[in-house]
Amino acid sequence: MADVLETTGGDFPIEEVELGIANRTWTIRHVGSVISAEEEAQYLRSAHGTKRPYGAVLWPSAIALAHEIASREIAGKRILELGAGTGFPGIVAASLGAHVVQTDRQRVAMHVCRQNAERNRVTIDHRLADWTQWEDTDRYDVIMGSDILYAEELHGRLRNIFDTNLGAAGTVLIADPFREASLLLLRAMEADGWRVSLDKWTVGVAPPPRPVGVYALTRAAGIGIP
């Protein structure tokens, strides 16, 4: 009998994929992978009117962010992952010596996140958390998220988290497939004095592969911490 993920919207088969990053193969469980723009459009059409657990889908931005994390010196750093989903970037970070807190508002996503951490033998602090009811006041060296800027109405909530939880010399890392709504927040933060730099990753082998930007945001001199 196939393994399934039980949700209030129905049961969804669990799939497993192996991904190679940082000279290691990672085993990631998910309810489907969405890489190309065409696959994303098809997924969103099929999810219409259902409660499909999009948080437990493996999205290209998560793969790009995992590659970005593997390219950085993060051992010993405290990392907060927002909208963790399958948990892939945080799992890579924890394996490289970071202290990782993964958050998501979906219980099903947290369930898959925990399974993936266990299967890859890393220790991570998992917490259910909603950006609209945020209670964490800790400071982190890195705040990261993949494909978390799609909802413009939540941009203010995310900026509050960045202001509240990012350490003085910290970095926000956001992976995004160049969505227009996402660029609105990035441009606004740059206009307010944040430094914004970009690394571009290409995910997938089927033509056309999906371009994903990983944006690094740091406070410029003169931007205070609340």
Notes on the protein architecture:
With 226 residues, this protein is an alpha/beta fold. The protein contains 6 helices and 11 strands. β6, α4 (107-119) and β7 (125-128) form a beta-alpha-beta unit. α2 packs parallel to α3. The mean pLDDT is 90.
What's the helix and strand layout?
Blueprint: E1 4-7, E2 10-13, E3 15-21, E4 24-30, H1 37-47, H2 60-70, E5 78-82, H3 88-95, E6 99-104, H4 107-119, E7 125-128, E8 140-146, H5 155-165, E9 166-176, H6 180-191, E10 195-203, E11 210-218
Parallel strand pairs: 5-6, 5-8, 6-7, 8-9
Antiparallel strand pairs: 1-2, 3-4, 9-11, 10-11
Brief summary:
This protein is of the alpha/beta class and 226 residues long.
Question: What brief labels describe this structure?
Answer:
two-stranded antiparallel sheet; Rossmann fold; single chain; 226 residues; alpha/beta; 7-stranded mixed β-sheet
The total strand number stands at: 11
Distance between the termini: 53 Å
Task: Report the mean per-residue pLDDT as an integer.
Answer: 90
Number of helices: 6
Largest sheet: 7 strands, mixed
Any idea of the CATH class?
Alpha Beta
CATH homologous superfamily designation: Vaccinia Virus protein VP39
Measured by DSSP, the beta-strand proportion falls in 25-35%
Low-confidence stretches: none
Our count of domains comes out at 1
Record the strand order, biggest sheet: 7-6-5-8-9-11-10
The name of the CATH topology is Rossmann fold
Sum up the overall morphology in one term.
globular
| Helix amount | 25-40%
Helix/strand order: EEEEHHEHEHEEHEHEE
Radius of gyration (Å): 17 Å
CATH architecture: 3-Layer(aba) Sandwich
Q: Which structural class matches the secondary elements?
A: alpha/beta
